[in-house]
């Protein structure tokens, strides 16, 4: 085995599983409404019903069991009377699907028994793990001289800077596109109001109204109803530090090596997602440019129509 772990591609991760999380149409609860989700896994061919608290339970177990893996945070619960706004529920559903997809496609977490129970069993029964992944895996290296600890440490340190830069860049891109999304939604609302106002003007003008004005009003209303481009988030995970525990020097040394190897593997997984995100930016920018061009053409056509 080389110092760095084997390369991981996004295509390999994507082929591991396809997760779907959909809101159950009817919310339950008399006073404090709660939502349920249909969770589907293509890999296991299953669909189960889960609540938000079930996701929290799975997160807590994975977080405790895998201290050397990047377990992303869950979206907030936001307990409110009535169960929350529809917009918040839709965003949380999408965030839960992204979170579970990252877990189900992880090279190690994908094979976890508790994850399989979460995806397959109708009745969820998860127990807090008594040991972490190092103990559960029973990892004992046959040949410690194959790769020295110093080499693993050097490889780990060399991976950190580019990954940190990528994380900062992705976080900044996410903020930018979220602002673009908000502006697009505001513009779409304005377009709808403009279309309604122009329709009112056309109705007030009576049967002799210019048909071009009605056509312009319909065009504006249709343009305002178009969906805006949304940006899928990824790589917002937070690495948990291993809990220090008294142990024999050799056991501590083996655990340290295991942690370094796990960190290197996490870096490869993160790099695969970074490459996929970078590759999608061109298409995203193209769709955004097309949307802006359509808006510009709309205003041009509207000005020309009103000038007639």
UniProtKB/TrEMBL annotation:
Its main location: membrane. One of its GO terms (cellular component) is early endosome membrane. GO terms for biological process: early endosome to Golgi transport; intracellular protein transport. It is a peripheral membrane protein. This is Sorting nexin-8-like. One of its GO terms (molecular function) is phosphatidylinositol binding. It comes from the Eukaryota. It is found in: Membrane. PROSITE patterns: PX. SUPFAM superfamilies: PX domain (SSF64268). Residues 15-126 form the PX domain. The lineage of its organism: Eukaryota, Metazoa, Ecdysozoa, Arthropoda, Hexapoda.
């Amino acid at each position: 085995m080389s110092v760095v772990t084997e390369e991981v591609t996004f295509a390999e991760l994507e082929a591991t599983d396809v997760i779907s999380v959909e809101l159950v149409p009817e919310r339950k609860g008399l006073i404090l409404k709660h939502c349920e989700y249909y969770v589907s896994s293509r890999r296991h061919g299953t669909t189960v019903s889960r609540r938000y608290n079930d996701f929290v339970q799975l997160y807590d177990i994975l977080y405790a069991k895998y201290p050397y893996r990047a377990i992303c945070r869950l979206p907030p619960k936001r307990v409110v009377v009535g169960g929350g706004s529809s917009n918040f529920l839709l965003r949380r559903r999408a965030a839960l699907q992204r979170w579970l997809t990252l877990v189900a496609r992880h090279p190690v977490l994908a094979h976890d028994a508790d994850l399989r129970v979460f995806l397959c069993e109708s009745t969820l029964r998860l127990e807090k793990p008594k040991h972490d992944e190092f103990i559960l895996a029973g990892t004992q290296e046959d040949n410690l001289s194959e790769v020295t600890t110093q080499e693993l440490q050097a490889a780990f340190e060399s991976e950190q800077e580019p990954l940190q830069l990528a994380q900062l860049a992705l976080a900044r891109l996410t903020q930018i596109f979220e602002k673009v999304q908000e502006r697009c939604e505001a513009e779409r609302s304005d377009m709808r109001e403009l279309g309604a106002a122009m329709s009112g003007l056309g109705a007030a003008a009576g049967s002799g109204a210019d048909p071009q004005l009605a056509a312009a009003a319909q065009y504006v209303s249709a343009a305002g109803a178009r969906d805006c481009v949304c940006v899928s988030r990824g790589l917002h995970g937070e690495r948990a530090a291993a809990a220090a525990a008294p142990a024999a020097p050799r056991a501590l040394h083996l655990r340290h090596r295991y942690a370094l190897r796990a960190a290197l593997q996490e870096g490869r997984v993160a790099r695969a997602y970074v490459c996929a995100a970078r590759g999608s930016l061109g298409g995203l920018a193209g769709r955004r440019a097309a949307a802006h061009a359509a808006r510009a053409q709309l205003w041009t056509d509207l000005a020309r129509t009103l000038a007639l």
